[in-house]
Input
Amino acid sequence: MQTPMILDGKALAKSVEQELQVRVQRIKDKTGRVPVLATIIVGNDPASVTYVRMKGNACNRVGIRPLKIEMPEESTTEDVIRQIQALNEDPDVHGILLQHPVPRHIDEMACFNSIDLAKDVDGVNTNTFGRMSMQMDAFKSATPLGIITLLKHYNIPLEGREAVVIGRSPILGKPVAMMLLNENATVTICHSKTKDLPEVVRRADIVVAAVGKPEFVKADWVKEGCVLVDAGYNPGNIGDIDLKNAIAKCSAYTPVPGGVGPMTISSLIRQTVESAERKFGITNG
Ligand code: NAP
Output
């Protein structure tokens, strides 16, 4: 068995950022304007605060202006939608991100669905999902886009491969399954009601774990030579796959940290740059 390949999201994200710096500079040179990513955070969940800070830092590295909007925990769905609508109408804002998850009393999907499709750079609006699924022009859900970008960068074949996605959330499991399907993989989506999950996972050439439970996928569930994509990010930098033991069986894997996480941020930033380029009529290249 060969040493498995590390699908290094950190390194790829860094090189994508370098490319984006050039594109942002071109926007500035041609228009005198700076792309703006507005981020709304509701409440102060520590993990969300960290993610928003990381996204803001990435904006600064490529020359985008991050506009952080902090809303109190007790905000209502209507409050958040009103804020989103103001950003939809603001001609200086090119991308809108509502940090997931919002407090439980807020209807997150209603908020996502109020984001203008042209500014939905995190790819969370239901219509964005529908258009992406139908292979129409649309932004893509950021984490799934990061995963597919990483797999393609490392020339992991997708066409005709058995892909098993564990998790069906609107921001991760469902869109990554659709994107794999659009790449001609044969896709199975698993969830908490799936029967004989280890048996289903054993069929997979590509496993995408998006469960939110530390080291949930065990080494004896995975086939020799498979590709392991661990989207999970649990406290203590622990993924959803028992990578320590599963690595020996796979041909390639995403490390945690340094795999899917950096690619999520880089996809968000890339789509913000694309949104600004469209707005200003600048073609990339
Ligand atoms: P989520 O909304 O909680 O969804 C979890 C999914 O896992 C659900 O579809 C659930 O099934 C399924 N599940 C739960 N228990 C299961 C079981 N015993 N067997 C099979 N399926 C089970 O989570 P999420 O937002 O998609 O996030 C998933 C993970 O990805 C988390 O660790 C999160 O931190 C991470 N994440 C990472 C990034 C990144 O940038 N790296 C971005 C987003 C999320 P049901 O639908 O049946 O309940």
Residues 142-260 form a domain with the Rossmann fold fold (CATH 3.40.50.720). The chain has two domains: 31-116, 142-260. Residues 9-31 form the longest helix (23 residues). Strands lie at 5-6, 36-42, 65-71, 95-98, 162-166, 186-190, 206-209, 227-230, 252-253.
